[in-house]
Amino acid sequence: MAARPQIREVMASKRISRRRFAGIAAWSTLGLSAPSVASAQAGKSGPNRATFPRGFVWGTATSSYQVEGAVNEDGRGPSIWDRFAHLPGTISDRSTGDTACDHFHRYKEDVRLMKALGTKAYRFSIAWPRVFPDGTGKPNPKGLDFYDRLLDELSAAGIEPYATLYHWDLPQALQDRSGGWTQRETPKAFADYSAYVAKRLSDRVKCFFTINECSRHVHLGHGEGADAPGLKLSRQEQNQVRHHIALGHGLAVQAIRAHARAGTKVGPAENAVSCIPAIETSENIRAAEVATRELNAGYLTVMMEGKYTDAYQASADAPKFTAEDLRIISSPIDFLGVNVYTPDHYVVAASNERGYTLAPFPASFPHMKAGWLKPGPEAIYWVPRHVAKLWKVKSIYITENGTSSSDQPAADGSIYDLDRIMYLRNYLTQLQRATSEGVPLRGYFLWSLMDNFEWGDGFEQRFGLYHVDFETQRRTPKLSAAFYRETIARNAVA
Ligand code: NOJ
């Protein structure tokens, strides 16, 4: 095989345009000069028991505050994350999302990176404070301009957009004026914003996700104070916030039905509490289902069943709600999006009152670069299987999955992120297992397209397939980008 130029040399050559670079990066640094023999064969024929279903959607995911930057452009107002990240002691490396990946200006290059992977879908989020800088009231006339440009670019590249309406960047004005999600004004404001976006963008966006990871937003943002808005509320108050977010989800579903073009689809993108049978016996599997329903009582369960579980309602920390709230929260959805990173609990059947024990993690249980990210590939098999079984869900997306890695460049300048590849290979193998058993999985969005602002961890945890040099904004594919590209080309784990 002919020697390929190192990516640094390629970049150094002034004769090569940015556009051309993305192409070269995709085909040379990814370790491929053409689709591999295996992918060509898989595409043609050949009995391959391990393929994903035909039409399975392969994508990547990002979110507005984590990648866009341009926080003061085109009339954008401040969000709770702008305020929080600028407070001393909130972000481990003292960084902010002020510039992040500068995606606002570099989206064309970024769409080329998506295309180079062979992805056909992109999940991104819309920044509410760009659209309504004050949270409510008059929309910013330039508020959707950036997304218009992005959508046109995606469409030209043949990449289907999946838009998340809320990935935690609440307009600061709503937090200041009415206490954010602690009050009922915010769900209503969210519905108005959703209606406006749906009306304007549903000519090109066919699938909307309402709210990203309600659980983390409540727990870290309103309980631990480690995410914006940095509140440390009581358990009851946190459950009230969760209820308001669930209400916001339901109102947004209704707003989209009322204002979007016919056929627009909508659902949540939640990090369901994942309950894995410690050993796959029928007793443990049943216990893990019971645990899934109970441990997601405050959000997914009420959304799917229209009522809080008896145990949740009976607890001293239960939220206050009306019957009408529950009807709104359980408005029918088109699909369920689940972010799956790690097993939250390994479950063992038990003859106690709740019917299960949550096995404690031994101190020696391994983790990825981030201490919280324990590898448990079977989580991505069990979460979709449980939700499909419990709630007869007909359409499921993995809205996020991935890991951070040290990502040190090797002597030759390449990033051989073997731990990320190991993680992805194992998770995707379990995902394929689920599809092969008929779990109705429609697609998978890898977190993330590129390294970005990882909230309280700043730029210290890198989740991207593309390495980003935050000084120069240079994007360089890691080896995992080649792995993902090959997997997509084969429609099977590479
Ligand atoms: C889930 C969140 O939605 C995303 O914003 C975050 O970067 C990833 N987890 C990794 O922590």
Describe what you observe in this structure.
This protein is α/β, with parallel strands linked by helices and 494 residues long. It has a single domain (56-490), classed as TIM Barrel, CATH 3.20.20. The chain has helices at residues 7-12, 18-29, 37-44, 64-67, 80-85, 103-117, 128-131, 145-156, 172-178, 185-201, 214-224, 235-259, 282-295, 297-305, 310-314, 323-329, 379-391, 418-436, 479-490; strands at residues 57-61, 121-125, 160-166, 207-212, 265-270, 275-277, 336-339, 345-349, 356-359, 396-401, 441-447, 466-469, 474-477. Strand 10, helix 18 and strand 11 (441-447) form a beta-alpha-beta unit. Helix 3 packs parallel to helix 19 (479-490) and helix 17 (379-391) packs parallel to helix 18 (418-436).
